[in-house]
Design goal:
5-stranded antiparallel sheet; single chain; globular; 378 residues; 29 strands; 42% strand; Neuraminidase; mainly beta
């Protein structure tokens, strides 16, 4: 494996199989999207009065002009943190009481090592999950602690519930099972202490198989809902009735999806918004590929289109997906969505490639929620 995080799907670049000498096809962006001048691609924390804050690798920077320019970097937060890394290797959150809390993967000592003969991670496989927080706006940092040892990877669910609890949803490579499982961590004291939930296991075998990269949102009835990346042609969903302590309901969703993560968010309108890579191209079908060491069955790795849909009934049904952008022969994946102002959505990608795995500029566009509301899909 290359020196990169496992869930960022390095093997997929080879699976795409295009010759590196090919000229990349032109990217298509929906005409109702507007390009952003923001020079970072998140994740962001934003203040009520407008400024954005980003963890740029391992320092805080702020912008008062919509991300066009940024303040000089502050002091490093801690060794091993690198939120500027490709993918979603950490998530920051500013609590309602003003604490800054960051969950991150610690790249000090990082080592991905998979035994192809045995089909399992080697004992030295390591990328630990840690947490740290600040009570003075990022001047000093305290309560640094390890949440999960072993090997963990990209995660995109981190919220504060209506009751004030912090809930993060993460993935973990379980050596004994030889696949990924999901957990949540919750804190009732603004990130000072954390408690781990029960394991969510979907079965499977391989270094990209199982329950991966879960998203989370609080529903209007107080339950929490996860949407979980799988290799099973759709997101699966899990529900918690006790704030993320336990997940007792696990079932397939009606959202078709490639083996790629999405981003789920509650909007000011009350709707849920989801951006993700669908199972197949719009109006077509893409053959599945052998999973090899990634999964023990045929899998869709399709990532050329990024789509958006909305739900007005708490994730039971969704509007007909609309393609936001296409990267023919490449990929627009690992999305991030920020509601900049009510109804104004900023959409970014953090894994972006031309044909043949050539790095491409990230997608960075704004769109109006109202322009992309369609009829519910039947």
């Amino acid at each position: 494996m290359k020196n990169d995080v496992i869930s960022t799907s390095l093997v997929l670049l080879a699976m795409m199989g295009s010759a590196s000498a090919e000229t990349p096809a032109e990217r298509w962006i929906h005409p109702r999207c507007k390009p952003l001048e923001c020079t970072k691609n998140g994740p962001f924390m934003q203040s009520d009065d407008g400024p954005l804050t980003v963890v740029d690798a391992n320092v805080l920077r702020t912008s008062s002009d919509g991300g066009k320019t940024w303040s000089e970097p502050g002091e490093p937060i801690c060794s091993g943190m690198n939120l500027g890394h490709i993918g979603h290797v950490g998530q920051p959150l500013r609590t309602r009481d003003g604490a800054l809390v960051i969950l991150y993967l610690d790249f000090d000592g990082y080592n991905f090592s998979w035994d192809n003969e045995k089909g399992e991670p080697k004992p030295e496989c390591k990328l630990e999950l840690w947490a740290i927080r600040s009570l003075d706006g990022g001047k000093t940092w305290i309560d640094k602690q390890q949440l999960l040892p072993g090997y963990n990877a990209d995660f995109m669910g981190f919220i504060q519930t209506s009751k004030g609890a912090l809930v993060a949803t993460v993935e973990h490579l379980e050596p004994a099972l030889r696949r990924w499982v999901a957990y949540s961590f919750y804190s009732e004291d603004d990130g000072k202490t954390w408690v781990r939930s029960n394991m969510i296991d979907l079965g499977g075998h391989g270094h990209h198989d199982g329950a991966t990269e879960p998203m989370v949102v609080e529903l209007k009835d107080g339950r929490l809902m996860m949407l979980i990346r799988t290799t099973l042609d759709r997101f699966w969903k899990a529900y918690s009735e006790d704030g993320g302590r336990h997940w007792r309901v696990l079932q397939p969703s009606n959202i078709d999806a490639s083996s790629a993560p999405g981003w789920l968010a509650r909007l000011a309108s009350g709707r849920l918004a989801l951006v993700w890579n669908r199972l197949n191209p719009e109006g077509g079908e893409r053959p599945k590929r052998n999973g090899g060491q990634a999964a023990d069955h045929l899998v869709s790795w399709y990532r050329e289109e990024l789509s958006i849909a909305f739900s007005e009934d708490e994730g039971e049904t969704w509007t007909t997906p609309v393609v936001v952008a296409r990267e023919p022969g490449g990929q627009l994946s690992y999305p991030y969505l920020l509601e900049r102002t009510p109804g104004e959505l900023w959409v970014f990608t953090r894994y972006t490639y031309h044909t043949g795995g050539k790095p491409a500029p990230p997608l960075a566009v704004s769109l109006q929620e109202a322009d992309f509301i369609t009829k519910p899909e039947k």
